[in-house]
Amino acid sequence: MDQNLSRIVAQDKNFLNIINGRRVAALSQETITVLCPSDGLPFATIPAGTAEDVDSAVRAARDAFEHGPWSRMPAFERGRLLTRLGQLVEEHGDELAALESRDTGKPVRQGKADVVATARYYEFYGGAADKIHGDTIPFLDGFTALTLREPHGVVAGIIPWNYPMQIMARVVGAALAMGNTLVIKPAEDASLSAIRIGELAIEAGFPDGVLNVITGYGREAGAALSSHPGINYVTFTGSPVTGTAIQQAAATNNRGVTMELGGKSPQIVFADADVEKALPVLVNAIIQNGGQTCSAGSRILIERPIYNDVAAALGERFSKLIAAPHDMDLDLGPMVNPAQKRKVENFITSAAESGIEVVARGSIHVDAPVDGYYVAPVLFGAVDPASVLAQEEVFGPVLSLFAFDDEADAIKLANGTEYGLVAGIWTRDGARQHRVAKKVRAGQVFVNAYGAGGGVELPFGGFKKSGHGREKGFEALFDMSATKTVVFRHD
Ligand code: ADP
C-alpha cells in the first residue's frame, strides 16, 4: 500500500457502531480485534455488539420509520440522499479501497473496483427511487382498483465478508429507495467499510435512525437481529448453513427473507468457442477475490475434442498465478481468516489424496508474511462429477475441469449440483446459446462472457440451494417492498 493510503487507514483504529445517527461503542464496551489477513496482525477494533445493542439499533430504525422525517419524505428526496451517498463514496474512494483491501486481504485494485461498484449502486438506486410505482387494475363496473408499493418497515441486512462494501450497497440502495429503514450487521471479519459508509450516510444527510450499523459475532449480534420481533424483513448473503439458521430465526416472527447463498457455478466451453477470448475470463472467474466469490466460476465443462488443449492452456496460466499481500496487488490475496484457509486447504488435500489429477498449482509469493492466510491456487482435471470437489462450494482459488460429450451431457453436468447461481456458455452457435441459456438452472447466465460483479442493473439471485429472492437491478425494489391493493367503489 502506498504511504498515503496506509496513513488514512491508520488514523482511526477504534471503529464504532452507528445507531440513531451517532457513533457508539457496544453497551458492554467489548471489542473484536481486526486482523489483516495479509500478515495476521491487528490494526483496528470493532464493537462486539450483542442483543442489547441490536435492540437499541432496531428501536432507532423503528422510530425513524414510524415517526421521523424519513416517513414523510418524497421518493425523489430519498433518491437524492442515496445519490449524494454515492458521490461521497467516490470522493472517499482511495480511503475506502485501502480500508476494504486491508480488512479482507483483497488486492488493492479489487478494492478500487469494489468502490466503483458501490458508488454505482447508490447512484442506481438513487435514480430508481421515484421510478417505481403501482398499477391500476381493470375490475368490476363501479370500482377502481389500484396497487401501491409500500416499504416493509425495518429491514435487517446481514452482510458477508467477501465483498462487504458492494453487498451492503445493494442492500442499502434498494431498501432505502423503497422507504424502509435499516439495521446492517456486517461480518465480524470485515466490518470496517460498513462503518465508514454508515458515517458517510450521516454526512450525506440521512435522518437519524434510517441507516444503523451494528458489528458483532454472527452467533450473537446476527442471531439477535434475525430473530428480533421488531424486524419486518431480513436479507442475507452468505453460506447455506447460516442462511437456514437465519430463515428459521425469521420464521419465528413470520418475516419475509431474501437469501443469496452461494454457488458451484459452471462455465460450459463448446468445441466451437473462441477459446483465446475465454481463457482469461475462465481464470479470472475463479481467481478474483481468491475464489471467495458467491458467483465464482468454479467448474469448467469442456467439450471432449478440445479438453486436452483447454486444460493445458489453463494449466499454463494457473502455474503463473501468485498469491501475495493485498498491497502487492498481484493475482490474488490471502483467504479472509485462518478458518477459511484451513477449509480450502482441506478441500485441496482430500481431493488430491482421493486421486483427482492436479493439472497445475500456482504459488505463494516468497515475501508474503508467514502469518498471512495464503493458499496457492490449484487446477484439478478430469474431476468426477459425483465427488465432493465437484459438488461443494470451496470458496477458494480451486478450479475443477470436466469433459463432456454433447449438449445434453453439458446441461446435465451444469445442473448436476444442488446450487444454481450463475452459468457461463462459450459457443459461437447462436441457436445453441439460446437453447442452453434456457436449460441451465441459474439466476444469471452469461454467453461468451462471465462476471456477476459490478452489474448493478442486473437482477441477481439463485435457484435451488443458492437461495431465493432477487437482489440488484429493479427486481430488488420488489423484494424490498410489498404490494398493497386498494379498491374504491364509486357507483
Ligand atoms: P462464514 O461461515 O464464512 O463466516 P457466514 O455465512 O456464516 O459465513 O456469515 C455471513 C454473515 O452471517 C456474517 O455477517 C455473520 O456474522 C452472520 N452470521 C453467522 N452466523 C449467524 C447466525 N447464526 N445468525 C445470524 N447471522 C449469522
UniProtKB/TrEMBL annotation:
Pfam families, alphabetized: Aldedh
UniProt EC number: 1.2.1.3
PANTHER family in UniProt: ALDEHYDE DEHYDROGENASE-RELATED (PTHR11699)
Listed GO MF terms: aldehyde dehydrogenase (NAD+) activity
Top-level taxon of the source organism: Bacteria
Family statement: Belongs to the aldehyde dehydrogenase family.
Keywords annotated in UniProt: Oxidoreductase
Enzyme class, UniProt record, top EC level: oxidoreductase
Organism: Phyllobacterium myrsinacearum
Aldehyde dehydrogenase domain boundaries: 29-486
Keyword Oxidoreductase: yes
Protein name: Aldehyde dehydrogenase (NAD+)
